[in-house]
Design brief:
D-Maltodextrin-Binding Protein, domain 2; 3 domains; alpha/beta; 8 helices; Double Stranded RNA Binding Domain; five-stranded mixed beta sheet; single chain
């Protein structure tokens, strides 16, 4: 039976609501007479537990049938979501790279020694420290707007954030550098939105599939296969970026320790249709090259 009201679950912040509104606009032509409602979902404790993925609360709300569709950045979706949940669509990808926002048009090479940089994900922290070990990398909590205020007040010298978040929130003119993958390989899935539903919602699946972008889907599945082969622990610094050109697929992958002292990185190529095998092959090679030792160290420190 087709639903008359479809509840779109989003993270309970400004960016989540913006993403939800975008999805509603894309979704409306495909839902017939059904009404679309945005439902903000917050973390029970105010901030996600470090051993959980940021999207855990949305997936839980979906399983508990408090929402019908979970909308979130693919980088926040667990590589191993609940068995009852399916990734119904991956939207067209925005810019997948990370960017620096610093005062006075400064790029990372020009930052004074000891500069305080807000970079609150393990993969950004590790790669920035590997590139410049003199920087002070801070895990500053709060929304991008709150962190921008800290920058303006001089509490930090720069912010490293995703280009897509900057685009969604309208801070493009504040970007001082877009990082190439030589400096920062982004988190797997960055730049695309994922729409998750329950596997039992057959009618809804047919509707949501209209929003699935075939190029983004191949790229994201390669990146997530790489991530999944290594670990589902969100505290392990893992970066991956795939690029589909026609039917040719190229994947860059990184595994690091949290302080950026050791980094393992390589590339793998393949074809569309083999994206999961491409991701798994690259992950296995890096693990054999020595990256497995980083996982053992991380597990013993938990």
């Amino acid at each position: 039976m087709t639903k008359t009201r479809i509840r779109i679950g989003v993270r309970d912040n400004k960016l989540g609501r913006i993403l939800g509104a975008q999805v509603v606009g894309l979704f409306e032509p495909h839902v017939g007479s059904a009404t679309l409602t945005i439902v903000p979902v917050g973390e029970p404790s105010g901030r996600a537990h470090p051993s959980r993925w940021p999207g855990h609360a949305l997936e839980r709300a979906l399983v508990d049938q408090e929402i019908d569709v979970a909308v979130q950045n693919m980088k926040d979706v667990s590589p191993e979501p609940p068995a009852s949940v399916v990734l119904a669509a991956v939207t067209e990808r925005f810019t997948p790279f990370d960017v620096l926002i610093a005062r006075d048009g400064t790029i990372v090479d020009e930052l004074p020694e000891g500069s305080a940089i807000s970079a609150h994900t393990p993969i950004r922290r590790a790669q920035l420290l590997h590139y410049r070990d003199d920087l002070s990398i801070l895990d500053v909590s709060g929304s991008l707007e709150e962190r921008m205020k800290k920058l303006e007040m001089g509490e930090v010298d720069g912010l490293v954030v995703s280009a897509s978040a900057v685009e969604h929130l309208g801070y493009q003119d504040r970007v001082t550098e877009v990082f190439t993958t030589e400096v920062v390989v982004p988190a797997p899935g960055q730049g695309a939105l994922g729409l998750q539903i329950l596997k039992t919602s057959k009618d809804l699946l047919k509707m949501v599939k209209h929003l699935d972008d075939p190029i983004a889907r191949v790229e994201i599945e390669a990146e997530r296969a790489f991530q999944r082969e290594i670990t589902s622990d969100p505290t392990i610094p893992i970066g991956a970026l795939a690029k589909l050109d026609g039917t040719d697929l190229r994947l860059e992958g990184v595994i690091a320790d949290r302080e950026g002292l050791k980094i393992y990185r390589d590339e793998e190529e393949g074809k569309a249709g083999d994206e999961e095998q491409v991701g798994a092959r690259l992950a296995r090679r890096l693990l054999l090259d020595g990256a497995r030792g980083l996982l053992s160290t991380a597990e013993s420190s938990h």
